[in-house]
Amino acid sequence: MIEAFRVREFFDLLKRLKPILREEEVVGFGAYYFFLLGAFLTILFFDAEIASAAITASLVGDAIAAIIGKLLGGFFISKKLNSKSFEGAIVGGLAATLAVSLFIREPASLFLAFVTFMFAEIMSRGVYDNLTIPLALGLTLTMLKKLIT
Question: Looking at the 3D structure of the chain, how many domains does it have?
Fold first, then answer.
């Protein structure tokens, strides 16, 4: 409901929030909307252990990737695709891997979590990574679990 008010500019909410919003959030849905959708779908489609790992890794990894990308980012894969740096994706991938290790100890899972996070982070446009990362991690971890059990 708050999102509808923000998009439709009721109560001048957009004017108050504009300084802290990304450009794509001013005209569309905020990152939190896509995170909630991604978390909901991840919980719906994957078992509890994998969903917990994927959502936690998404939260931690994406936040760290954004911070490091802003502070140290210098190499961008494609400015046309998105404004995400390679440095942010690597450090975010490491943080996501640490988060996954809290739930899953399988070395192959940790390696695939790192690769999947980096790929989803770099290839996702704007705030959509909040939807794609937990789903990509959940799918990858589920496929690996099916292969090794």
Answer: 1
Q: What is the pLDDT along the chain (149 residues), one digit of tens a residue?
A: 555 555 555 555 555 655 555 565 555 566 778 889 999 999 999 999 999 999 999 999 999 998 998 888 777 766 566 677 889 999 999 999 999 999 999 999 999 999 999 999 888 877 688 999 999 999 999 999 999 87
The answer to pTM > 0.70 is yes
Q: Is residue 22 part of a domain?
A: no
Instruction: Answer yes or no: are the C-beta atoms of 6 and 13 closer than 8 Å.
Output: yes
Asked if the structure places residue 10 within a domain, the reply is: no
Domain range for 136: 31-148
Adjacent-strand bridge partners of 76: 85
Query: CA 47 → CA 67, 140, 144, distances in Å?
Result: 30, 13, 13
Residue 3 inside a domain? The answer is no
CB < 8 Å & 24+ apart, contacts of 115-120: 116/140, 117/57, 117/61, 117/89, 117/92, 117/93, 118/89, 118/90, 118/92, 118/93
In a domain, 23, yes or no: no
Task: Please tell me the distance from the alpha carbon of residue 56 to that of residue 17, in angstroms, as a whole number.
Answer: 26
